[in-house]
Amino acid sequence: MAFLEVNNLNKYYPITDSERFHALKDVQLSFEKGELVSIIGESGSGKSTLMNLLGGLDSQFDGEILVDGENIGQFKEKEMVAFHKEKIGFIFQSFNLVPHLSILDNVTLAMTLSNIDSKTRKARAKEVLEQLGLKDHYQKKPNQLSGGQKQRVAIARALVNDPDIIIADEPTGALDSQTSDQVLDIIQDIAKTGKLVIMVTHSERVASRSTRIVTIDDGKIINDEKRPPLQFHDNAFQIKEKQENKNLSFFAAIRMALLNMKEKLSRNILISLGGSIGIMSIILMLALGKGVNDYLTDTMNENVNPIISEARMTEETQSDTAAAASVETVPATAPAQPSGMGGGGGGIGGTLLADNPAAQMSKNIPFEEANIAELEAIPHVEKLELSYASFSMGSDTVVYEGENYAFMNFGTTSENMTDSNILYGEFPDQGEVLITEEMADGMAGNAEDMIGEDVEVKLSVNGHALTGTYTVSGIYTAGNAIGPAGSFDSVFMTMDTFADMNAANGLTVEPNVVYLYADEAGNSQDIKDAINGLGYAGSSTDTLAKTFTKMLDIFTYILAGVAGISLFVSAIMILTVLYISVVERTQEIGVIKAIGGRNKDIRRIFVSESFLIGLFSGLLGVAIAALLSTVGNVIVERIFGTTILHMTPIYALLGILASVIISVIAGVFPANKAAKLDPIEALRHD
Ligand SMILES: Nc1ncnc2c1ncn2[C@@H]1O[C@H](COP(=O)(O)OP(=O)(O)OP(=O)(O)O)[C@@H](O)[C@H]1O
């Protein structure tokens, strides 16, 4: 059996659904190694069609093409890839070199696709290039070479994997006669080494150098002229050692993508810059959200005693207690006034706000023994402090010099207050009260003047009107804290004073706020979680902080989402640019396919490119965001004394990740288009 056998080969090109063009008609041929065959014929006779079929670029045919006994028409993709890598080398009329790769890289391309190690690749390519007289041109780009040199590079590329068959389509068609002769010498030498060389030519002169001339006319072989064989000689263009072929590695794909990107540097810098704007905006929005959040939380927690957690009754806990019928509800007596006023501020008035501030304001549910026992049992709770707070819509008043001053917020003092809550004067003792600055201002014109003055406090407690006369010991301020005490007129007295006030009116205090003291600050969060877990409301400062955080998070995500729209714009930009790149590189894609690149490899090269664009955009976006945050923070700090853009490594990482993912997704479509290109059409593309 001949090395290459063609039996009853017919090729039909579909024209319409019902019509097809019969391009090759019952072709019967057989070739041996060492032959230099010229296929000649009129334009349109079917030469290229035959070559494409022999080279495995087109597998749609009737009949048989047997190479070394194997029918290439029945090859699966993997076998066809191996066939292209190991058995066939192509030489094209227009050279089809990859413009952005060096001469050396053009020649090693086939081996790169086979994942042959770089040292072997270079050594083998240099060996072949040297034999073809291109020793001094390894690092040049194709456009720096003459036509003859380009064709020699293309020949080197075809030879480097030491194939059995070389298919050359008009190899001298673009060369002058002197250069043509040099190239023909080389082609003849190749055949002399025992390879089968089949070339298409229009030139009589070229045909005359071959050992066989096959003439084709209207798809039929009309003449097959055998001429004297070439003198076989050993070893020129023989590759010493062959290596097992694998597939294009990820790193090789990245390198190829990088080389291409370098070629179109300014374009890629512009796309990356475009993409980076979206990433930068998202990171800045997240940083701003975090900055504002941090600022608010810090401000709210500034004076809060970290040891103390707060619990209030809710309807849920109340009904739970009621359901436990066996639990006898005994109103709690007032605890001893805690010593050493010292802890947190800002918060006590805030206790009136809970999960649903409006609803909680009007509720005043007292704790029962079962509740208190339950809270006391929470791990790490060292002691409890029972307290009372209420909120009224103007029914509570302070009377001073015959004038009524309505206030909304009443509470007993606790260790949760700090000295920073006392604007003037001091914490109240037995028979004393604290009032807020605005009230005091209204009463005396100057808040400080109220200290030492007696006022009558009128409270409504569970439907009972309580009154008592007390001395103003100090002026309360909520400081920076956000909460009702910060914005509403308030009155505070000790729990003992409040108990006496109740007793004087025949009532017993029913505490509705419990402060839980942790054994150490680090356990406070666990206690807060346990309080919530048991169904009690926590401190309104915490609740408020959480509500603010939640609201800010929502705003931040909305803003980041709006900024994210620009990511879609950049995704579309990347998509467009990669589509353009596919069109620009159509010939290159054809070459890669012809030398054994799988669809997967092509996809990988393009996806690598979009991956790199995404990575660069992301890094650039992070760098710009970091720079703007730093500058922004310096400016804001100078004006407001605080920083507002809190960028974290997580945001940076998220930004880069988002950029890469979006870019890769955008790259998949053009990459698929590239992978699906028909090699014959791709090679023909101008
Ligand atoms: N994709 C195709 N669809 C339909 N007809 C085609 C297609 N490709 C080629 N043909 C037809 O098949 C015939 C053979 O074309 P082919 O390209 O093989 O000719 P050729 O001998 O190589 O011509 P040339 O020397 O001009 O390159 C022509 O009539 C051509 O119009």
Automatic annotation (TrEMBL):
CDD domains found in the cross-reference section: ABC_MJ0796_LolCDE_FtsE
GO biological process: amino acid transport
InterPro entries assigned to the protein according to its UniProt record, in alphabetical order: AAA+_ATPase (IPR003593), ABC3_permease_C (IPR003838), ABC_transporter-like_ATP-bd (IPR003439), ABC_transporter-like_CS (IPR017871), MacB-like_ATP-bd (IPR017911), MacB_PCD (IPR025857), P-loop_NTPase (IPR027417)
Record Gene3D superfamilies: P-loop containing nucleotide triphosphate hydrolases
MF terms (GO), sorted A to Z: ATP binding; ATP hydrolysis activity; transmembrane transporter activity
Subcellular localization, as worded in the UniProt entry: Cell inner membrane
Classification via SUPFAM superfamilies: P-loop containing nucleoside triphosphate hydrolases (SSF52540)
Listed SMART domains: AAA
Keywords assigned by UniProt, alphabetized: Amino-acid transport, ATP-binding, Cell inner membrane, Cell membrane, Lipoprotein, Membrane, Nucleotide-binding, Transmembrane, Transmembrane helix, Transport
PROSITE patterns: ABC_TRANSPORTER_1, ABC_TRANSPORTER_2
Membrane topology, from the record: Multi-pass membrane protein
Membrane-spanning segments: 269-288, 554-580, 611-636, 648-669
Annotated ranges, domain ABC transporter: 4-243
Sequence segments annotated as region (Disordered): 316-348
Pfam families noted in UniProt: ABC_tran (PF00005), FtsX (PF02687), MacB_PCD (PF12704)
GO cellular component: a single term: plasma membrane
Family classification: Belongs to the ABC transporter superfamily. Macrolide exporter (TC 3.A.1.122) family.
Protein name: ABC-type lipoprotein export system, ATPase component
